[in-house]
Amino acid sequence: MLDNWNRELNYRKLMDGGRGAGAGDGAVPAAAAAEAVTVDLSMCNQCGNLIENTVTYCHACYDLRSESDFRNERRWRELEGDFMVVEADLHKERAATKRLEGALQSFRHMLLQGIHADVTIETGEFDRTPAHRAVLASRSPVFRAMFEHELKEKTCAHIHVADVSTPAMRALLLYLYTGDHDTKVMKEHGMALLTAAHKYDIPDLKRVCETAVANSVKPSNVIETLQQARLYDATWVKRACVDCIAQNLEKVAFTEEFRNLIFRNDDPEAILDTIQSIAALQ
């Protein structure tokens, strides 16, 4: 980069007739001009005057000048250019994010207000939430199959979902419309929401739920959580439960839930995973 800058300055000096810092306005012979092409120039920090690198100070303002100063200045200018590019990219990202947030806010409003809703979801608690077939079908293959095939839901404006709680269903709908989730609902109803995400084939929501449920596993709920995790194929949650049992065996082994898991013998794979994890910790 420095060599390119020097060549550019030397070229300008040649085109200027070979005049350098402190030179007069008279014409310079061609031989002198040709010799000037090989002279490296740099710019004075103080006044901007072009000076030869062999000169230790500027003839115009007498400011000291060194090659390291010139190199540092060039590097700083390059960094400034990079910063400007990054800042421009960040500005574009912020603008795009703002537009997306506005669109998602509109979808949230459409859900909460039931604007032009064409279907109603009723939970086991008989709470009803208006929704839109197009949104549900575009986000869930299960809902799409309901509306496309010869099922009663295809023409019915009412869908009863007995096995999903009201908080879980509303959290599910909010995620389908906005891609967002309520942290409080996730903490209190994470497993119920994971169950709904599994039922309606929404893998991205299921992954979010698995993370929340796995972080909430403890000795007091580990057996129940493990059984549900295996039922709904929640791999991360299963791993967290097995590790919790292995690390807290003295607390878990004497609980009624653990005794039922062992003596019922209806989930041998869970028992095997637990034993292998315990062995790995020894």
From TrEMBL:
<dbReference type="Pfam" id="PF00651">
    <property type="entry name" value="BTB"/>
</dbReference>
<dbReference type="InterPro" id="IPR044714">
    <property type="entry name" value="AtSIBP1-like"/>
</dbReference>
<dbReference type="InterPro" id="IPR011333">
    <property type="entry name" value="SKP1/BTB/POZ_sf"/>
</dbReference>
<protein>
    <recommendedName>
        <fullName>BTB domain-containing protein</fullName>
    </recommendedName>
</protein>
<feature type="domain" description="BTB">
    <location>
        <begin position="117"/>
        <end position="185"/>
    </location>
</feature>
<dbReference type="InterPro" id="IPR000210">
    <property type="entry name" value="BTB/POZ_dom"/>
</dbReference>
<comment type="pathway">
    <text>Protein modification; protein ubiquitination.</text>
</comment>
